[in-house]
Amino acid sequence: MKTLSRWIWAAGWVALAAAALYATAQSQDNRGNPRPRRAAAGRGASAPAGTGFADAAPLLSPASTAIAVRVELASRVKQGKKEPTVWDGSLTVSEGRLLDIRSWNRDPRDLIEGSTWKITTRRSIPWNTEQRKRGHDLMPLQDSALLVRIADAGPEAELHFDTAQGRFSVRLGEILAGRAVAALHGLVAVSRAAVADTVLSAPTEDDYPAAAAGPDGSLYVAYTAFAHGKDFRRRGPVEQRPDSFADLAQPTGGDRVMLLTWDGRQWHGPWPVSEVGGDVFRPAIAVDGQGGVWVVWTEKRKDRWDLVARRRNGGQWDEVIRLTDSPGSDLLATAATDRDGRVWIAWMSFGAGGHSDILTARQEGAKFGPPQVVCDRPGNQWQPAIAASDAGQVTVAWDSYENGNYDIFARTWSNGRWGDIRPAAAALDGEMRPTLAYDRSRRLWLAYEKSPPNWGKDTGPTIQEKGVRLQAGRTVAVVVWDGTSWKEPAEAAAQPFAPPTPAARADRARADNPAARRRGVLGLPRLAADANGRIWLAVRTAREGTRVGVGTVWLTHLAFYSGDRWSEEIICSGTDQLFDSPPALAPMPDGRLAVVAATDGRHASAARLPDWFIADLRRQGEQVAVKVEPPRWPD
Questions:
Q1: Other CB atoms within 10 Å distance of the CB of residue 403
Q2: Which of 234, 389, 392, 577 is the most exposed place for a label (fewest CB within 10 A)?
Q3: Which residues pair with 527 in a beta bridge?
């Protein structure tokens, strides 16, 4: 099941994490604008006074005063090789309340009771046939971590850790958002994490969140809810060959677009936006200048996928309006509100020519004007993004295959007309999935996925010019348009998501060495500019996830750009799901950032070790507790 939450963790269903993270910016009056640099230049200008991280934000969910702390516990290295390391220990807090401690890896062999724990770094579980043939002893060692939640504690509160590897203490005020504190010669890294609370948990599969903030501080979240068929969850294991599979042909309840709202104190809804039993795809949402909340989505009608919209105004719903009537599919809508309070929508459309184009439409009162073509050049155009500046500009970016590989292009509406199409990233690399945000200086920030040349092309022993596998070498990049040219930030966008190794944490001089950083696949970037001038970047990565029965655990990581560098990453627990589950970012008027994400609870399922693995451990004399949890939903 998928549900909505503000960092949510669940087991065995997909949950939508709504208002999942609030990154509160404080003491921002003297914060300067982020400074990009030209691509060919050295580092950018140094950050102005007050742009350090001393005033960086606590991470709070709307209704919570809890603080989340992630404590990374690394394996010791002996003669160049990692070895299993015992981290049994306890925690005391000088002030406030210790709410709970959780094992990050969720391994049931990690035992936690109150403020004490027994944890050891262990080898990864062999999941595929080849790994099982090699044996568990040849699998790589996996570092451990704790997730600690504390309430009612101020910046002077101290966390005192007593572990088998030594004692260390950290003051909460030191653990700034976007900066980790190392201890025990780099074996430990303590950092702030995102706090999350469940917003919605229902028997439906709630997914694909879109979020927008109103000028009064309200938060609006649209999502899709899929209802299973009758008795879906009551089907047990197949013990013998059934006489018939007719029961599997029972119809499902279909899809429905839903809406939730946060008024600053509590959540309201959800309200149905579309009809029950539909077939819908990925909504978008924006708030117009009159406070009307527009929800836009793709819906299948008579074997065609059309774009439709509906507005909620003053607590009442208008009728659903149809925005497209093209012979092909219209999908992947995205929305933004311009300086005059009008909502713009951009989407990709498969027209009569059989290839996809990028179109837009602008709100005109209670409806939208006719679609405008942004790009209909040869080759398919994909995955549009849209952003509006306070100077009246509206920019649409997309990725295109017109040159035989994926490139990023952008086009801006200004002074009543569209400007020229200009390339933003057009190398031989695979450049795709753009996201946009305007900063307070009206500069346009663009983030995108970047893969090596020949991305997605055929590969294999008989191929001369070998292609690159879909996720091989994938990372993210950022460029900034200052009105005349594209520039790169002074620090690469991937830098915060490649933290130093334990050895580099112990010797900061090694931190700039690429070999001393832990890297992973990065993708699906999302950008947002908060009201205090920070640029936020969210990515999906599996670097701190693990492998579980249903697949790889992908999580959302955040960083913000301030002065001339990125912060260190902020890991968002409760965002575990498939790779293709990007969060929605919604800057709030008071400077906070709401992050809305969906989770299927796969990280928690790491607590359910495979039966064959448990049997192997028991044959080796290891005691493993098996905890069977009843199903959350009776259907």
A1: 12
A2: 234
A3: 537
- Range in 34-48, 65-79, 84-98, 513-527 with the lowest mean pLDDT: 34-48
CA Rg value for the chain: 25
Q: How far is it, in rounded angstroms, from Cα 491 to Cα 529?
A: 18
Stretch (H or E) spanning 336: strand 330-337
* Torsional class of 563: left (φ above 0), alpha (ψ -120 to 50), beta (otherwise): left
The confidence band for 484, taking pLDDT boundaries of 50, 70 and 90, is very high
DSSP tag of 57: P
Within a 10 A sphere around the Cβ of 487, how many other Cβ atoms?
A: 20
353-403: per-residue pLDDT in tens?
A: 788 999 999 999 999 999 999 999 988 999 999 999 999 999 999 999 999
- Give burial (CB, 10 Å; 0-12/13-18/19+) of 552: middle
Comparing CA positions, the residue from 613, 552, 460 lying closest to residue 131 is 613
What is the CA 197 to chain-centroid distance, rounded? Answer: 16
Please give the average per-residue pLDDT across 254-272, as a whole number: 93
The beta-strand segments (E) located in 45-204 are 67-73, 76-78, 81-83, 89-93, 97-103, 111-113, 116-118, 122-123, 141-142, 144-151, 158-163, 166-171, 181-183, 188-193, 197-200
Distance CA 60, CA 501 (A): 28
Spatial neighbors of 623 by CB under 8 A, at least 6 apart, are none
Highest mean pLDDT among 224-228, 230-234, 420-424 belongs to 420-424
Q: How many CB atoms lie within 10 A of CB 378?
A: 11
Look at the pTM and tell me if it is higher than 0.70: yes
Q: State which amino acid sits at residue 89.
A: G
Per DSSP, the three-state class of 51 is coil
